[in-house]
Amino acid sequence: AQIIRDLIGIEEDVNDFGATVQAGYLVTDQVELFARYEGIYLDEDRFGILDDALGLENDVHFLTVGSTYY
Q1: DSSP assignment, residue 22?
Q2: What is the model's pTM?
């Protein structure tokens, strides 16, 4: 496995990070609207030369919206 990582230039030390932002609003005493954004930001060295060859994206994004009835 190490030989393959060396051939395609995958780094063993990578620094990924993520973030979450969430907000909610009580429309009435029983109904809440909410939204959440989550992002994962992968280190550009994670996929080595495969990143350019396969056109891989280094960021992953999630968006959640909804409501809660109490």
Answers
A1: E
A2: 0.66
Kindly state the DSSP code that residue 46 receives in the 8-state scheme: T
Amino acid at 63: L
Q: Please, which residues have CB within 8 angstroms of residue 6's CB and are 6 or more apart in sequence?
A: none
Where do we find the tokens 């995958």? Answer: 10
> How many Å apart are CA 67 and CA 62, to the nearest integer?
17
Extract the tokens encoding 28. 């009435």
CB-based contact 42:33 (threshold 8 Å):
no
Give me Rg for the CA atoms of the chain: 19
For the chain, how far is it from start to end, CA to CA, in angstroms? 52
pLDDT tens per residue, range 21-65: 999 999 999 999 999 999 999 887 676 666 666 777 778 999 999
